[in-house]
Write a structure and sequence with these properties.
heterodimer, A: about 120 residues, mainly beta, 6-stranded mixed sheet, 4-stranded antiparallel sheet, B: about 120 residues, 7-stranded mixed sheet, 11 strands
């Protein structure tokens, strides 16, 4: 079964508007971390934001915020005041806390195109 | 530099040749990971190092793939007798430790093309 599901293959957003990227996850581990990465056309994976399963508050980093709904197992990324430089592929990823699980499991990604 | 570096950035090889991909993690990071990104498979985990040992090799697709890490720093991923299906971007990442809360920071990747 897919551990991370991103249902939006592509999205268009107008410059200066906000956009929400969906991510749902599947795990039975009570301890896990959720991550969002940005991959521009240059190819590098850039870390954006992290949310831990025990965190009480939603994570925020500048224009990025994570809408964490634990009961629904969703971790949506919100990008506020979109900029042209935000055009990229965005990946949601999870790392489970089990002692033998070190890898990140990634979703398929969402391509965001910001229009001027 | 401060980030993860990888070399070469691009590698074109002929089917059947061996290739070596290099990763230089962030200084002080004890954990190192290799992933592969291809069109059909998305992002796949290959192998994980803690220090110089590799407790998790579960993602290596075949025995043609091997990796080592020396001095708790640089890692080399070797693909022997390359096949066209090995064509992909190979990404290396590092983190302070193996804890699930630790962010993995990625390098720019090596784009491998097997002709």
């Amino acid at each position: 079964a897919q551990k991370i599901t991103q249902t939006q293959p592509g999205m268009f957003v107008q410059e200066k508007e906000a956009v929400t990227l969906d991510c749902t996850y599947d795990t039975s581990d009570p301890s896990y971390g959720l991550f969002w990465y940005k991959q521009p056309s240059s190819g590098e994976m850039i870390f954006l934001i992290y949310q831990g399963s025990y965190d009480q508050q939603n994570a925020t980093e500048g224009r990025y915020s994570l809408n964490f709904q634990k009961a629904r197992k969703s971790a949506n990324l919100v990008i506020s005041a979109s900029q042209l430089g935000d055009s990229a592929m965005y990946f949601c990823a999870m790392r489970e806390g089990g002692s033998n699980d070190y890898k990140l499991s990634f979703g398929a990604g969402t391509t965001v195109t910001v229009r001027a | 530099g401060a980030g993860v570096s990888q070399s070469p950035s691009n590698k074109v090889t002929e089917k059947g040749k061996d290739v070596e991909l290099r990763c230089d993690p962030i200084s002080g990071h004890t954990a190192l990971y290799w992933y592969r990104q291809s069109l059909g498979q998305g992002l796949e985990f290959l192998i994980y190092f803690q220090g110089n040992s590799a407790p998790d090799k579960s993602g290596l697709p075949s025995d043609r793939f091997s990796a080592e890490r020396t001095g708790g720093s640089v890692s080399t991923l070797t693909i022997q007798r390359t096949q066209q299906e090995d064509s992909a971007v190979y990404l290396c990442a590092s983190s302070w430790s193996r804890e699930s809360t630790d962010t993995q920071y990625f390098g720019p990747g090596t784009r491998l093309t097997v002709l």
